[in-house]
Design brief:
Helix content: 25-40%
Radius of gyration: 30 Å
Number of strands: 24
Strand order of the largest sheet: 5-4-3-6-2-1-7-8
Strand content: 15-25%
Shape: elongated
CATH architecture of the largest domain: 2-Layer Sandwich
CATH topology of the largest domain: formyl-coa transferase, domain 3
Length: 595
């Protein structure tokens, strides 16, 4: 059947805009492509300037070898590259870029200026373009190296421009791109300037550990363990985060394959297996992972923006990553104890604790044995004391709304869960979730009644956050101060904390600010609603507070049960996880065939 329109070859200008849609979707994509070109050229120092989140202006300057006039003109043509020569080169790509379409695509959707000079030349070359058309080519004075300036991105593609987010959101993506490449190349010097304000200046020839400290703060390294492992030609090195430092999302997992920031489904599976039984479900470890293998063993040409790679022998890579993580976390003194509920049961008498473990200090330790050998059971007490209210209640007034009239603590299971007996059956309580519920309701009650009390720290604490977290905290400074946080901007990604809400107890300022930033970030556009933002802050702060208290006495556990019975929503924590699981005696009788 004949088509209504004849087939035509698209003009170069249209083809360039289509290519731009694949490699350039926001200012951060421009920064990524230009950084990769600078790194491939061998630049030792790269300087990035952005204005209005990159929507109005982006500049990437390097001290690389520069280009001649002819090479500069060729560089803005489609599929013009110095990195491959024939199809066989694609099988062993050693550079970050290789397709030769980035500059042409960027120039087609912006007002574009390229300035470059080789060291041996007296004059440089400046090319000015708009919407993919060359407007001017002239000689100019400039330092050795190359600078590319991009103004008014998507000025000629209004449909694409409408899909850009706010300046702050676009800036956060640019910061993340800068951070990723600064991490992957610690031997290069970097500078980032935002709206004419320098935010980062990183020295050359840094070690990877120094680069992490420069970007995240010196205290960040305390939660990391070095990795250096090789298996069947696959080398894995970098740092693995201890289980106690796990985050609520994957934003602090950085993976590099042959120096390229990239991911692959098999790597996500390897991380999950490496931390299996070590990190609870819904928590994600810190990871800075470099994977090195022969270039012929990895395909970097499977994604238009080169975000994913594919391994020829994925099983070898997976096994190498799993072994590397397990080896790094198994060193003596590291907190790599399996979490409760995992396939590898924790020893209840063990002294080591991870996030999620809790010790009742004065509860007698039950004698353990291996099934099926059964010990002789003592006779049950039948006196009045067996049904008395638990000790430590301090004569509290009876709570008629509580589901049970009495309960007692029988013991602890899995190093975390408290086993309670009531008149109706057996209750398992997660004391962390219960404590979090109580703190949350107390905090929210103070907010509603506008009587949040702050507790000054003995000495102000300097906190350095990751760039994305710092941006979120800076945007919500007024809200945090109204909720009892004493936070002051110290420049860059640093803050001074001199007070915290009194109901949260003695917390690490770094821990609570990081959790608050992630809680607000996960809200997306809803964070504009102040009431919702307050709730997110309270949830995140309470989550941090619960982690800070892992040892409770038997009397404190009993008081926790009493207080939980008075809560507005006693059966779940603020995040929806259950605080109590009940199994009635009637159900137990039925399971044992006694009904």
């Amino acid at each position: 059947m004949a088509s209504a329109q004849s087939i035509q070859v698209l003009p170069d200008q249209v083809a360039n805009k289509i290519a731009a849609g694949e490699v350039v979707d926001r200012p951060a994509s421009v920064v990524k492509e230009l950084i990769e070109n600078s790194l491939d050229a061998g630049a030792r120092r790269i300087e990035i300037d952005v204005v209005a989140g990159g929507r109005k202006y982006i500049s990437v300057r390097d001290d690389g070898p520069g280009m001649s006039r002819d090479d500069a003109l060729l560089s803005v043509e489609r599929h013009a590259t110095s990195k491959i020569r024939d199809v066989d080169d694609i099988e062993s790509v050693h550079t970050l870029g290789f397709r030769g379409e980035a500059l042409a695509a960027i120039a087609s959707v912006s007002r574009f200026t390229l300035t470059t000079r080789r060291r041996e030349d007296l004059e440089g070359t400046e090319i000015t373009m708009a919407g993919g058309r060359i407007l001017d080519v002239r000689e100019t004075g400039c330092p050795p190296g190359t600078q590319i300036q991009v103004r008014h991105l998507f000025f000629n593609v209004p449909a694409r421009r409408k899909f850009l987010r706010t300046e702050q959101t676009e800036l956060s993506h640019v910061r993340h791109m800068f951070l990723v490449y600064a991490l992957s190349h610690p031997d290069r010097g970097w500078r980032l300037t935002v709206d004419e304000r320098e935010t980062h200046r990183l020295p050359e020839q840094s070690s990877f550990q120094e680069r992490i400290s420069d970007l995240f703060g010196t205290s960040y390294a305390d939660a990391l363990r070095p990795i250096d492992h090789e298996r069947e030609g696959v080398r894995v090195h970098g740092y693995a985060g201890l289980p106690r430092a796990a985050r609520s999302d994957r934003s602090e997992q950085y993976i590099f394959v042959n120096g390229r920031p990239a991911s692959a489904p098999v790597l996500g599976h390897a991380l999950a297996q490496g931390y299996h039984t070590l990190v609870p479900k819904g928590r994600y470890p810190l990871i800075f992972l470099f994977i090195e293998l022969p270039s012929g063993q990895v395909d970097v040409n499977v994604h238009p923006a080169k975000k994913e790679v594919r391994f020829r022998r994925s099983g070898q890579v997976r096994d190498a990553v799993i072994e590397a993580i397990r080896s790094a976390l198994s060193h003596p003194g590291d907190s790599a104890t399996p979490v409760p509920g995992s396939e590898e049961p924790a020893d209840p008498a063990a002294g080591a604790m991870t996030e999620g473990t809790l010790i009742i200090e004065d509860l007698p330790v039950a004698r353990t044995f291996r099934y099926p050998r059964m010990p002789s059971l003592p006779s049950l007490e039948t006196g009045a004391d067996a049904y008395a209210a638990p000790t430590g209640t301090g004569g509290e007034e009876e709570n008629r709304d509580a589901p049970w009239s009495w309960c007692r603590v029988l013991g602890q299971a899995g190093g975390l869960y408290v086993v309670l007996e009531t008149e109706d059956g057996i209750v398992l309580m997660d004391p962390h979730a219960a404590h979090e519920r109580l703190l949350f309701e107390r905090f929210m009650r103070q907010i509603r009644e506008q009587r949040v009390q702050s507790q000054g720290l003995l000495s102000p604490e300097s906190v350095e956050l990751p760039p994305q977290d710092a941006l979120i905290v800076r945007r919500n400074m007024d809200l945090l101060k109204a909720m009892g946080f004493g936070v002051s901007d110290f420049g860059g990604a640093s803050f001074i904390v001199d007070a915290l809400p009194q109901c949260l107890g003695n917390l690490s300022a770094l821990t609570v600010l990081a959790e608050v930033a992630r809680g607000l970030d996960q809200g997306g556009t809803r964070a504009g609603t102040e009431g919702w933002a307050e709730t997110q802050v309270a949830r995140a702060a309470c989550r941090a507070a619960v982690k800070a208290r892992d040892r409770l006495s038997l009397q404190e556990i009993e008081q926790l049960v009493i207080d939980l019975a008075r809560a507005e929503m006693p059966y779940t924590c603020p995040h929806g996880r259950p605080t109590l699981i009940f199994m009635g005696f009637s159900e137990l009788h039925r399971k044992f065939g006694r009904s």
